Request: fold
Amino acid sequence: MELSCSGFHFRQIPYTFAADFNGQQEDLTVENCNQVVSSVNGNMFELNLGPITSGRCKGDLLYVQTVYTSDNPLACAQQTLNTLRITQMSAGIYGDNCPTECSDYTATSVTINPAINNHGQA
Reply:
């Protein structure tokens, strides 16, 4: 997916989410995940949603939302945006097999390569 400073993107993709069940990591696969990314001046919201297609949670619905913010609110307008910070991530599994919800507010840095600006890729 080509990111932009301001825009809306939708696609269906295979998606794997690394889940932790009582200290045991398990990959949850969604074969046709609906991915939506919305951005305004470099701040982004990402949503991944779809039915889990393998493992102990097969048949349940996976919902993952992530909020990314820029440390420089004028990065897209005045220069280039090459780093975002994950400021909030929430995940939920809804169904009969693995019902659970969790959130993480640990600020994690993400590098954008190639960098973007208001004219596209920088």
The chain has one domain: 7-117.
